[in-house]
Known about the structure:
Layout: H1 2-10, H2 20-38, H3 46-49, H4 66-89, H5 95-98
Helix pairs in contact: 2-4
Amino acid sequence: xxxxxxxxxxxxxxxFGMGPVSIFAVYFVVWWLAFLAVLPFGVRTLEETGEHEGGxxxxxxxxxxxxxxxVAATVIAAVICSLVYILVEFRTLTIDDIGIFDPPGR
Length: 106
């Protein structure tokens, strides 16, 4: 249907690129991955610090430093999402480049 592309483009719908929902979805997933990746850094257990008392797991962190880890995950996710956004918006990265959607034998 040759008239479809022009009609969709004139209606304001996005054909290429990332909309706000896509950007949020990518940021959400990347933020959680970054948070889980930085979570173990800098953790010292109660047993290592000598603060272990009865009723606690010896492997529990003495100071988890969660605020630092949230900030680190936020910065990492912002950088990665910015790179993904730039790659998608300038059509450097497309769904065809990912390769998992190619049929077998191609």
